[in-house]
Specification:
The protein is of the alpha+beta class. About 15% of the residues lie in helices and about 20% in strands. The strands form three sheets. Strands 1, 2, 5, 10 and 11 form a five-stranded mixed beta sheet that branches.
């Protein structure tokens, strides 16, 4: 029987459309499955180091608040290394998101995402993230009157003259590293509790530096405690660590005031022995600019049941009341 060429051509065109639609559907399904690749499963990964958070979409500058529409990190189930807490820790545990207290510097919004390495990296909620760091010219609150390797002569330019007369009353408790506080200042210290997504955020400034150390932010994770008014009480410390910053961005920040007024030579990450212990995973992911400020993001893997000893709490550090011996300050 003779076939009609026009009918064959029409049938071929229809079949081609159906095949193309099927191919498109198959491709979409394959892409969806790729998002659930076995390599992304927390249960199949090994706890060993920290991962960085993905850049949050649609935000520029430190003044931009994070939203539910922001791109979230897809963390590997990894454990953040323990490093020294240093000599400048104060057990204040003040709950607040803005810790600047009018300190001058490039605005920084720090966004930490905490995941539970004992539960396939599920978000860890109600954990207390406790941070502290120096100001733009190298001073820690509570120690601005101290003469140290980090700040010869005591106070930096931004803090005014050294305190006169008797020590102020109501001083905070001693730092765990043995340093004796000299004042009751509390700038650039604070605690935030993680939300249901494991996120805790702080408004602060880009940290400065002092002798022997690269730029960093200290942090502790507290578990099992409770809030009492505007402070966090009880529980145990499940992690002690430090966060570091990309060198190319720090170069630009160091060139503007008040950072540029600091005369202490800046140590690079590669020269910092504590950074060597923390690793590249301790470097925050930055978005923004020197002019508008930055958003810093990082994902921290923590086992909330752990009670690790702070790693080398007094290692390489000269307490601020003692003269320099040439070692690194924590």
């Amino acid at each position: 029987m003779k076939r009609d060429p026009q009918k064959i051509s029409a049938k071929a065109r229809n079949l081609s459309r159906r095949q193309m639609l099927g191919l498109m559907e198959s491709t979409a399904a394959a892409a969806a499955l790729a998002g659930c690749a076995p390599g992304q499963s927390g249960s199949q990964q090994t706890a060993s180091f920290t991962t960085q958070a993905a850049t949050t979409g649609g935000r520029t500058g430190a003044s931009a608040k994070t939203t539910g529409a922001a791109t979230k990190a897809t963390p590997s189930c990894v454990l953040t290394p323990e490093v020294t807490e240093g000599p400048y820790y104060l057990d204040l545990l003040k709950i607040r998101d803005d810790i600047t207290e009018n300190m001058k510097g490039v605005p920084l919004q720090l966004r930490t995402t905490v995941v539970n390495t004992a539960d396939d990296c599920a978000p860890l909620k109600h954990a207390a993230v406790d941070i502290w760091h120096c100001n733009a010219t190298g001073d820690y609150s509570g120690f601005t009157g101290a003469e140290s390797a980090s700040n010869p002569g005591g106070n930096a330019v931004s803090q005014g003259a050294p305190p006169q007369g008797a020590p102020p009353t109501g001083l905070p408790p001693d730092g765990a590293g043995g340093a004796q506080p000299t004042d009751n200042k509390t700038f650039l210290r604070g605690v935030q509790l993680t939300d249901k997504d494991g996120v805790a955020e702080f408004e602060t400034i880009y940290p400065g530096w002092y002798q022997g150390r690269a730029l960093h932010i200290h942090l502790k994770m507290h578990e099992g405690g409770k809030t009492s008014g505007k402070t966090y009480e009880g529980g145990h410390v499940s992690h002690t660590g430090q966060l570091f910053f990309p060198e190319d961005v720090t170069e630009r920040v160091a060139a503007v005031k008040p950072y540029s007024s600091h005369t202490i030579d800046r140590v690079r990450n590669s020269e910092d022995n504590i950074f060597q212990k923390a690793g590249d995973g301790s470097i925050v992911k930055l978005t923004g600019s020197v002019k508008e400020g930055f958003v810093a993001e990082i994902t921290l893997g923590v086992n909330p049941n752990s009670t690790p000893d702070p790693a080398g709490v007094d290692a390489g550090g000269t307490p601020p009341s003692l003269p320099s011996t040439g070692g690194q300050t924590s």
